[in-house]
Amino acid sequence: MTANEAIDFAKESGALVVDIRFTDLFGAWHHFSLPIEQLGQDMFDEGLGFDGSSIRGFQTINVSDMLLFPDPSSAFMDPFFEIATVVFIADIRDPITGQRYTRDPRYIAQKAEAYLKSTGLADTAFFGPEAEFYIFNDVQYSNGPDQAFYSIDSDEASWNAGRNEVPNLGHKMRLKGGYFPTPPNDQLQDVRTEMMLTLMDAGIEVEVQHHEVGGAGQAEIDLRFDTLLTMADKIQKYKYIIKNVAFQNGLTVTFMPKPVFKDNGSGMHTHMSL
Asked: How many beta carbons lie within 10 A of that of residue 231, not counting itself?
């Protein structure tokens, strides 16, 4: 989409709010919102200011001013806000020089794509990630001067086979026993399907969703391959959508690599084609 097409898209979608998002060095999304009246060509041409010193790993306080330039091709409607909101993913620039910010992960991805092409090894690189995560029913943690603990729970987990509830219907998963079982052992089919359909509504092509090996609620939803920057943006949307669909269903999701002792860890191995 061009800037004009993105503006038309927002209006046709009934957006009342514009949400601007960018990624920090640690991979987390940040955002702020503006009324739809602020959405115009000047937003794409002149950018929007923010405090770079408040973002870990970015700027010091004496050079904190930074600019965000929304990418019109990244526009999508947020599937979770009650008020209709159009989202743009932004590039970061220096307000004095106008140059791209070297610590902007999107810029790093774009430079990597350009470098690959310059080597003559390939014209295009495609990336197809398989992202795994755990869906838990309860998470508790604390770290204080007198104690430290964490506690996780999954209705599917083997440790709940003897849980004192009436009725306890069994159908729990043994450790490492979660690969492709059918319901009633697989209790997460509907929520994974909701995640898949929400991803598709946000313009992300999904190949498959299924229960993974981890018996305490591990899941995987695979995306159709795409180029590096586009797929990086999609993975940010992926994590956002997965976590929020779970939250709306009274569940919680983690992409931590090893949340359950003795059970499978969660990876994101990636297919690459040059």
From this structure: 22
